[in-house]
Amino acid sequence: MALVNCADCQTEMSNLALACPKCGRPNYVPAQPSAEPMRKVTVEDIDMPFFSMVAFMLKWGVATVPAILGLGMIWFFLGGFFASLVAHH
Ligand SMILES: [Zn+2]
């Protein structure tokens, strides 16, 4: 703890004081690493992909069923087509 002089009125005050006790001029406070915004962004980054991923997987799961059925139909007809070609020979 040290004493500093106010830049406006030169009053001695603690360097830890937030403001000059005489004139109220805000004291210089060294910039501290602000973890609050970082933490907020991090939480949003974790929350957003989680719910969007769940919705994405649900949509993907629903969309996969007709896709697999369609692929099965294509393979079934292609297989029958080539089988009939082979049978004619
Ligand atoms: Zn002052």
Q: Which short descriptors sum up this protein?
A:
1 helix, 2 strands, two-stranded antiparallel ribbon, single chain, mainly alpha, 2 domains, binds zinc ion
Q: How would you describe this structure to a colleague?
A:
Helices cover 61% and strands 7% of the residues. It is mainly alpha-helical and 89 residues long. It folds into 2 domains: 1-30, no CATH class; 33-89. The longest helix has 54 residues, at 35-88. The protein starts with a strand and ends with a helix.
Number of separate strands = 2
Strand order of the largest sheet: 1-2
Each distinct ligand: zinc ion
Low-confidence stretches: none
Q: Which structural class fits the helix and strand makeup?
A: mainly alpha
Count of spatially separate domains: 2
Question: What Rg is obtained from the alpha carbons, in whole angstroms?
Answer: 36 Å
Alpha-carbon distance between the termini?
100 Å
Order of helices and strands: EEH
Mean pLDDT: 81
Q: Helix tally?
A: 1
What is the subunit organization of this protein?
single chain
What is the 3D form? rod-shaped
Helix content: 55-70%
Beta percentage is 5-15%
Largest sheet: 2 strands, antiparallel
List the helices and strands and how they pair.
Elements: E1 3-5, E2 12-14, H1 35-88
Antiparallel strand pairs: 1-2
The structure holds zinc ion.
The site of zinc ion (ZN) has 8 residues, from loops.
